[in-house]
Amino acid sequence: MPTFSGLEHILCEGVALSPFTSLRLGGDAQYFAQPTSEEELVGLVQQCSEQDVRLRVIGGGSNILIPDDGFSGMVVSLDAACFCQIDVDGNRIHAGAGAKLAHLLSIAAKNGLSGVEQLAGIAGSVGGAVRTNAGTHSGDIGQVTKSVHVINSDGEVSEKSGDDLRFSYRQSNLDAVVAIRATFELEPALPEEITKQMQTLWIIKKSQQPTGVVGHGCVFRDHGGITAASLIEQAGMKGHSVGAVGMSESHPNYLIVNEGGTSKDALQLVQAVHDAVLEHSGVSLATQLEVW
Questions:
Q1: How many domains does the chain have?
Q2: pLDDT for 204-222, tens place per residue?
Q3: Is 8 helix (H, G, I), strand (E, B) or coil?
C-alpha cells in the first residue's frame, strides 16, 4: 500500500474523475492530489516514482477518456494559484501549466501580443495545450513556445528549450514529464484587431462543437491534409452510435455522450469508426482522444 509521507493534507482517495473531463465519463481516481506549491508537486512526483505509482495530470480534461472502473494511480490537479499565474514581460508571456488557455489568450490580446489568438475556442489548460501542441489549421501553440519548465520522473526540475523542445502535429516530446510553466514569444499587434480575430475564431470553433449533450470530445486527428470528419462521413459512420454514445450528425469527428453513456460504449464506438474508415479508405486514423 503506497504511503505519501508529508503530503497527506493535499491527498484524497476515490475521487470521481468524470466531472473533470469534457466527456463526463469514467470512474474514480485511486488517489487525487491538489498540490499548493512546486515543492509539494516535486515531492509527489518523487514519491510516486519511488513507489511505482502511475501519475497523470488532469489539466482542463479536454478529450480525456477515463475507463469506467477508474484510474489506478495518482491524478494531479494543478488548480492552485501558484500553477495558474500569468505574467507579461515585453513580448513574452510566462504562464503556469494550470492556467486556462482562454485566460492566456485574453491576457495576450489585452497586452497587444499576437500569436495565440488562433487557439480561440479550444478548451483546456496551458500545460495540456503545450503537451498536445494544441492548434488549428491556422497554427499551433508550439510555434510560439520558447521554453517549458518540467519535472521528470525523478522529481528533477529542468527547462526545455531550443533543440530539447520538439513539436509536431498535435504532439510534443513532453509526454514523460510534468509541465510546470511555459514561456511564449509573441508579436506586437493592435489589441482591438487581436480581439476581433479571436471573437470570429471563437464563434467558428463553437459552431463546430455539439451542444445539448452530457459531454463531447474530438476523436481523431486529421490525416495528411484530409479531415477526419470527411473520412468518417465517407465511411458512413456519421451519427453511428453504441449505447448512449454516438458520433455527431453535424460534426462527424465529435463524439457525443448522452445520459447513460459509458466509457465502454465510447471505446467500442471509436474502434468501430476507426475500422470502418480503414476499410473504406485505407487510412488508419490516429486518435486525438487520450485514453487513460
A1: 3
A2: 877 777 765 778 889 999 9
A3: helix
Region at 124 (left for phi over 0; alpha for psi -120 to 50; beta for the rest): left
Report phi then psi at 266, rounded to 5: -60, -45
Whether residues 101 and 173 share a domain: the answer is yes
Q: Are residues 96 and 186 in the same domain?
A: yes
Cα separation, 129 vs 100, whole angstroms: 10
Burial class (CB in 10 A: 0-12, 13-18, 19+), 149: buried
Rounded Cα distance between 23 and 92, Å, is 33
Q: Mark whether 143 and 67 lie in a shared domain.
A: no
pTM: 0.89
Q: Do 155 and 95 reside in the same domain of the chain? A: yes
Q: Which residues are catalytically annotated?
A: 170
What the block records as the C-alpha cell of 1 is 500500500
The pLDDT score that the predictor gives to residue 243 is: 96
* Residue type at position 237: M
Low-confidence ranges of the chain (pLDDT < 50): none
Structural domain boundaries enclosing 70 = 8-76
What one-character-per-residue DSSP string does 39-98 give?
A: HHHHHHHHHHHHTT--EEE-TT-TTEE--TT-EEEEEE---SGGGS-EEEETTEEEEETT
Q: What is the pLDDT of residue 211?
A: 67
Regarding beta strands 86-89 and 92-96, do their DSSP bridges make them parallel or antiparallel, or are they unpaired? Answer: antiparallel
Give SS3 for 211.
coil
Which DSSP state fits 253?
A: T
Exposed/middle/buried for residue 182 (C-beta within 10 Å: 0-12, 13-18, 19+): buried
Whether residue 226 is contained in a domain is answered as yes
On whether the CB atoms of residues 277 and 283 are closer than 8 A, the answer is yes
| 3-class secondary-structure state, position 237 | coil
**Same structural domain, 241 and 278:** yes
